Amino acid sequence: MMLLQEKFRPRYDARLQLLAYQVKMLRNRIDDSKIYTTPAERAELTRLGEMIEHDISDVMLVVQPETYHRWRRPKGANPKRPGRPRTPYATVNLVKQFASENLTWGYERIYGELKKLGIRIGLTTISDILKREGHHPVPDKDRTVPSSTWNQFISSHMDTLVACDFFTKPIYTFKGKVNAYVLMFIHVGSRRVFMSPATFHPNEQWVLQQARNASIWLDELGITATHLIRDRDTKFSYAFDHLWKAAGTKIVKTPPRTPQANGYAEASIGIVKKQCLNHFICFSLDHLNHINKEWLNYYNNHRPHQGVDIENKILRPDFQPTDKGVIKREQRLGGVISYYYREAA
């Protein structure tokens, strides 16, 4: 019995020394919520662990046993840094490139473009990168929030809800400046947009024809509209409403002087003006139609959208993000429209 005690006493003493050293470490860190070991402490813990042949699973308390065994790796192996891994330099450079090449883009717009390219990164990380580089996002405008009842109506009819509105763009002709009118429709559920050709005379016959064209567009997308939101503009005639009602679509008129009630249409018009049309002076209807056509193709097929309910995705149904291939930049309208894609291998 005495011989057995003498044989196992050194191992028993080493275990006590290991536990005592960890108690000492913890006393020095009473106010710390997390333990970060120093190189000297790791060396001492490893030395004591070696005395018990590194069988420390039941006595190593300050770190996980897996962490302890990683310390024993041969020199030259890179230990894992504490905390979250660093953002790859290639991703940081892309964030800076997107911000410098597209001055009107904010954090969410850059986030959407990166997600489209198969790059995983958080909004906070993008914000931190741009702040370090001195880039700041374009501030959002104050918005008036519609009532909860109206919001509930919108959310419960998303997939079958269409909204429409007019917008104007000045055209400079030999006779002076003349406003051109465009009628825009948006399917709220998918955010896909239809724009009419521009006209100087949005009379009843023209508006009715655009309603027919929009109805055909919805049929091609396989969308059945149960409700159409519009304001009380007098250009929306009885014939316009009758065409939609005959197809089973209920007309929902917004209250007077309440543009926020038609927020999806207003937002889409604001985007096309701010990000595209405000950069151009148009000299003919054909010129404006060409710009709108390029924008519409970009908006419906390449632009990552920022609505929470559509998860910042491209509207094209067959689009799948990928992290394979070289990143290329595509520009339209002299660089006013800009997006990125991966070149097929």
List the helices and strands and how they pair.
Layout: H1 2-27, H2 39-50, H3 65-71, H4 89-101, H5 107-116, H6 123-132, H7 148-156, E1 161-173, E2 176-187, E3 193-195, H8 204-221, E4 227-230, H9 238-246, E5 250-253, H10 263-275, H11 285-301, E6 327-332, E7 337-342
Helix pairs in contact: 1-2, 8-9
How does this model look, in words?
This is Integrase catalytic domain-containing protein. It holds the Pfam family rve_3. Residues 142-329 form the Integrase catalytic domain. This protein is of the alpha/beta class and 345 residues long. 42% of the residues lie in helices and 14% in strands. The protein contains 11 helices and 7 strands. Strands 3-2-1-4-5 form a 5-stranded mixed beta sheet, sandwiched between helices. α1 packs antiparallel against α2 (39-50) and α8 packs parallel to α9 (238-246).
Tally of helical segments: 11
User: What is the CATH topology of the largest domain?
Assistant: Nucleotidyltransferase, domain 5
| Shape call | elongated
CA distance, first residue to last residue: 74 Å
CATH superfamily of the largest domain: Ribonuclease H-like superfamily/Ribonuclease H
Structural class: alpha/beta
Unreliable residue stretches: 139-143
- In terms of quaternary structure, the protein is single chain
Helix content: 40-55%
- Beta-strand portion reads 5-15%
Largest sheet: 5 strands, mixed
Kindly state the mean pLDDT as a whole number?
85
Q: Return the string of H and E elements.
A: HHHHHHHEEEHEHEHHEE
Radius of gyration computed on alpha carbons: 32 Å
Number of individual domains: 3
